[in-house]
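ok, trying the design again with the full structure, not the truncated one.
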C-alpha cells in the first residue's frame, strides 16, 4: 500500500533551494568531464564518480533499506541503471564528440521528456498544444546547435544525438524515482542503493572495455579535484538533493530550474575551455529555451 506524503511549506522552500543548487553544480559538470576526457575514458570517469559517491553515501548512513517487496528493489535498481549509469555514460560519451555548451543546452530539454514520461507512466500531467509547439521550436534550436558554423558538421551530430538520448533516459529515471518515493523509503538510503546497482553495471562495462586506468593522473592536479567534485558534490550530494526536490516540489517544477543550466554551462565552457559561442549557437540556444518556456506556459 502506498504511503501519502504531506509536504510542509518549509520543506517546499528547502526543496526549491535543493533543486537550484543541484542544477548549478550539474551545469558545471560538463566542463569538468570535458577536462577529464583528456586522460580518462567516459566509462572510467563514471566509475570513479559513482564509487566516490557511493562511498560517501555509505559513510553517512550504512543502514540497510528494508524493502517491502522485490518490486520495490527492482524499481531502485532500474532507476540506478537509467539515471546513474545510462544517463551519465551517454552524456560523458557525447562530450567526446561535441562541445560542453552543446551538451548543456540539449540536457536543458529535460522537461520535455520528463513531462512526456510522467504523462504516459504516472498519468500526472496532460500534454497540451503548447507542449508540442514548444517541443518543435526546441528541436529546431538543437538542429542549429548541431550544424553550428559548418566546420564541425562531421562530428557534432553523433555527440548531440547521444546527449538527446541521455536526457530521454533521465525522463525515465525521474518516473522511477517518483514511484520509489511513493513507497516512503529514506531518500538518502534509496539513492545510495541506486549508486550500488549502477556500479555493478559499470564494472561490467569497464571489463568489456579493457582499457587500463591511469592512477597517477587520477591523484594529480587538476584531475583529482575534478574527480572529487564529480563524485562527492555532483553525485552524492546532488542526487540526494535532487531526489529531495522531486519529493517536495514535484517533477515539473524541479525540471523547470534546469532552464538556467545551459547559460551557466556556456559561461564556464567559454571561460575554462575556451569554447567559442557563435551567432548560430546563440540562435540555437534561444530557440531551445524559447521552446521550453512555451511548452511550460499555462493559460489560466
Amino acid at each position: 500500500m502506498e504511503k501519502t506524503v504531506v509536504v510542509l511549506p518549509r520543506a517546499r522552500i528547502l526543496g526549491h533551494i535543493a533543486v537550484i543548487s543541484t542544477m548549478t553544480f550539474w551545469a558545471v559538470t560538463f566542463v569538468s568531464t570535458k577536462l577529464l576526457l583528456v586522460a580518462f575514458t567516459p566509462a572510467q570517469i563514471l566509475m570513479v564518480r559513482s564509487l566516490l559517491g557511493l562511498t560517501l553515501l555509505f559513510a553517512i548512513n550504512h543502514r540497510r533499506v528494508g524493502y517491502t517487496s522485490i518490486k520495490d528493489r527492482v524499481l531502485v535498481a532500474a532507476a540506478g541503471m537509467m539515471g546513474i549509469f545510462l544517463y551519465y555514460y551517454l552524456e560523458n560519451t557525447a562530450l567526446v564528440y561535441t562541445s560542453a555548451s552543446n551538451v548543456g543546452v540539449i540536457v536543458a530539454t529535460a522537461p520535455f521528456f520528463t513531462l512526456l514520461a510522467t504523462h504516459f507512466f504516472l498519468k500526472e500531467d496532460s500534454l497540451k498544444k503548447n507542449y508540442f509547439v514548444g517541443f518543435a521550436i526546441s528541436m529546431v534550436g538543437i538542429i542549429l546547435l548541431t550544424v553550428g558554423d559548418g566546420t564541425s558538421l562531421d562530428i557534432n551530430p553523433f555527440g548531440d544525438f547521444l546527449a538527446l538520448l541521455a536526457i530521454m533516459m533521465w525522463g525515465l529515471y525521474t518516473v522511477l524515482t517518483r514511484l520509489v518515493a511513493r513507497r516512503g523509503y529514506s531518500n538518502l538510503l534509496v539513492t545510495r542503493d541506486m549508486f550500488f546497482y549502477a556500479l555493478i553495471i559499470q564494472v561490467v562495462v569497464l571489463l568489456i572495455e579493457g582499457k587500463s586506468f591511469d592512477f597517477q593522473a587520477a591523484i594529480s592536479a587538476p584531475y583529482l579535484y575534478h574527480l572529487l567534485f564529480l563524485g562527492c558534490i555532483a553525485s552524492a550530494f546532488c542526487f540526494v538533493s535532487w531526489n529531495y526536490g522531486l519529493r517536495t516540489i514535484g517533477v515539473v517544477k524541479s525540471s523547470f530550474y534546469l532552464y538556467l543550466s545551459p547559460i551557466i554551462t556556456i559561461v564556464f565552457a567559454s571561460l575554462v575551455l575556451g569554447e567559442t559561442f557563435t551567432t548560430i549557437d546563440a540562435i540555437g540556444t534561444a530557440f531551445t529555451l524559447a521552446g521550453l518556456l512555451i511548452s511550460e506556459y499555462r493559460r489560466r
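Keeping the full-length input from now on. The two ends are 35 Å apart (CA to CA).
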